[in-house]
Amino acid sequence: MTRQAWGRPAAGREPAAAxxxxxxxxxxxxxxxxxxxxxxxxxxxxxxxxxxxxTRPGTxxxxxxxxxxxxxxxxxxxxAWMLADQLGVAARTPDELVDRLAADPRxxxxxLPDLHAAADPRALxxxxxxxxxxxxxxxxxxxxxxGGPSTTLxxxxxxxxxxxxxxxxxxxxxxxxxxERQPHTREPDAPPLAIDLDDPAAICxxxxxxxxxxxxxxxxAHGGLRAxxxxxxxxxxxxxxxxxxxxxxxxxxGDDADPRLPRALADLAEGAPWRVVWRRVRGDIHPRxxxxxxxxxxxxxxxxxxxxxxxxxxxxx
Length: 317
Fold this sequence. Notes:
This protein folds into two domains: 14-181, P-loop containing nucleotide triphosphate hydrolases (Rossmann fold, 3-Layer(aba) Sandwich); 200-313, no CATH class. By secondary structure, it is α/β, with parallel strands linked by helices. The protein is elongated and about 65 Å long. The protein is built from 14 helices and seven strands. The chain has helices at 14-25, 43-54, 76-87, 94-102, 121-131, 148-153, 171-181, 200-205, 208-217, 225-232, 242-251, 261-268, 291-294, 299-305; strands at 32-36, 67-68, 108-112, 137-142, 159-162, 274-278, 310-313. It starts with 13 loop residues before the first helix and ends with a strand.
């Protein structure tokens, strides 16, 4: 296979790009690289260049990127779900993901942009430290200069690259790049859309990562929807239709939920290719007739989700 050439990074970041590639190839280098700098210093541009090239088919192992989780707006749980999906493992919590990755000692390079913009930067920094407890994991973390998360990450040896320092830039190319960007002033971020966490239709149709973050920060049970959502985990954050998401959420609903929710979710699930015949969640106290007879068939599903759902394909019209 012909090796593909790597293009030049934008923003005059050739020195920084060369340093990143050297770090990736050096087995003696610290396994954490922290890329910092002020806003609009080119951090995201540099990491986008690395990700675009490092995820192409045929990329040599020493330059390969295996997982990318943009952390803006995410919690540690949501980040673990996203990363688990990319790495092909099942994990409901950050600790479970670390356990799954510990069982596979292959080199794993993970890029975590926008730590400073996460929903809980400190918790995500601590999650990063847990990942670094695995000798085969390397992390590239982007964090804006002067943030608290950088202090948490300083607990372990790290290669650091502050893009505000002159050795990481070709000044003429950076000046030209900045001038091209100048007319396009950045629009202020739109306020986050309100999501009614008590409404199954609202949460099934909203951005699943935003729903996850709001449920994690909420102390209300929301009629049982919060527990069901966090129980079903990454099965709800995949790109899917409202009926498909309603089926998954219904399967994870506990028997202590608002009694109106099963009917509401079943109505939302109309048109989905699957339907829930019965469900049983760990901790339920009202057994269902067929659960005991067929429980052995769903042991694998329970280990992944904590549920005993029986989901069958809906009859075709």
